[in-house]
Amino acid sequence: MPLIGALPQPISSAPFVLLVYLVLILLIGSALASVLLRNTLYGIAAFAASMVLVALLYLAIAPFLLVAVQLLVFTTVSAALLIGLLRATTGIRASRVGRLSPEWIIGTAVSAAMVALLALVLGATSWPVVACCAVSESLGFALGNTYAVGLATLAVILGSAALGSGLLLLAPTLPSARGGGSATSRSPGGEGSRTVRR
Amino acid sequence: MTAGLNLVLVASAALFAVGVFAVVARRSAVVMLLGTQFMFMAGALAFVAFGRFGLGATHATAGAAMALFAGAVAVAELAVGLAMAALIYRDHRSFALDADRG
User: Fold this and answer.
1) What's residue A137's pLDDT?
2) Longest dimension (CA), chain A
């Protein structure tokens, strides 16, 4: 029995390789856009697009369980947290970019090209049916047995993060030197919290 | 033309560089948090690439498992970081992190 098993071969199907290249280019582009855009809402949208593109890349090279978790859990939770922060702080304003502006046209063209390439890959190969269904059971088995302690640790980390962020948001803030801050204090009679603006 | 380990690792390195740029060069706390997310994402991508192309059949799921853990830790870090960003905004009416802001 070999030490590490047979090494898998790189992807060689032409439309599949083209899809991987395009996804990687778009991934780097959307990552750059999310850190360079001045509008925070657009930055968050570019970040969510990056997460979706990573999920699409995982669909090509990783088990299907990771794709599902990346797409349904990580992307959704991250985008919801970021948009929740915006709603709680600066608010979300409507876009001032018109529907027929160059940004919308370029975005629509890139999306259409992606969908066309995806359709081409799905038509020319048996992806993702072969990729998804063979390894996902073994990943679930590995997570439940080999990495059981890791999963438990992860649950503790996630619970601690939720508790810590909740406590941080409930904690009173110190008055700023410029006098622009606010503080949340709890009334002695136990009537709940109130916000004091200084 | 093939797509193998080298291609995904180059993309992972580029993604990590974007994250480092966001953390080092930008002032907004939200963009810095996005930068740390990109660094986590790059690490997870490298784990998956090694699991798919580099480790062999007996370790095919190890990289994916590590990527799952890295993603979950990234989400936890994002939750705490966003709570801190909300506190910063509540106090200064801005997400900017400046040492000389006063």
Assistant:
1) 61
2) 72
Q: Which domain holds residue A29?
A: 14-92+99-127
The answer to whether A61 and A24 are in contact (CB under 8 A) is no
Task: With respect to residue A8, please indicate whether it lies within any of the assigned structural domains.
Answer: no
Q: Which residue of chain B is at minimal alpha-carbon distance from A171?
A: B87
Extents of the domains making up chain B: 5-92
Which residues of chain A fall below pLDDT 50? 1-3, 180-198
Asked if B26 has any chain A CB less than 8 Å from its own CB, the reply is yes
Which residue stretches of chain B have pLDDT < 70?
55-60, 99-102
**Is the residue at A109 inside a domain?**
yes
Joined tokens for residue B51: 């699991």
What is the second-level CATH architecture of the domain B5-92? Orthogonal Bundle (1.10)
How many domains are there within chain A? 1
Contacts of A39 (CB under 8 A, 6+ apart): none
**Is B96 at the interface with chain A, CB within 8 A?**
no
Q: Is A24's CB within 8 Å of B11's CB?
A: yes
ipTM of this complex prediction, to 2 decimal places: 0.89
Is the pTM value of this prediction over 0.80? no
Residue of A5, A54, A177 with shortest CB distance to B58: A5
